[in-house]
Amino acid sequence: MTARALALGQAADFVAQVRWQFAHTxxxxxxxxxxxxxQPKRAAQFEAMCRAIAVHGVVExxxxxxxxxxxxxxxxxxxxxxxxxxxxxxxxxEPQDMTVINRVQVRLEGPAGQRLRGSSAAxxxxxxxxPRMGHIQHART
Length: 141
Hints:
Layout: H1 8-17, E1 21-22, E2 32-35, H2 43-56, E3 58-62, E4 71-78, E5 81-86, E6 100-105, E7 107-109, E8 122-126, E9 135-139
Antiparallel strand pairs: 1-2, 2-6, 3-4, 4-5, 5-6, 7-8, 8-9
């Protein structure tokens, strides 16, 4: 059975309820992850979250310039985190085949450094701890 994409409010609830683990194997790219196998009772929600990332997210290359891109994932910003999902084939898997959801903390800013609120705001996503992430502007409608 194919799960429908979570609405953004449901996605925020999902990420607040699951276990997150710091990715110790990639200290140069600090982020956290959760694994579908850790929450078998939430398998449908996990898939629906992966679909929400695919439906509501913005595709970006990773790693960012000047590095040569390896992946082109959809990324979804919820609150102060940016989420992306992966499967056995990295960014080539369909949402039902994703096994890991990753997240990194971001800072949302508007003009003159004003903190943005509301879903209709335009925002700039900036990784505070790593200048290689650069500045990515997302326009919400």
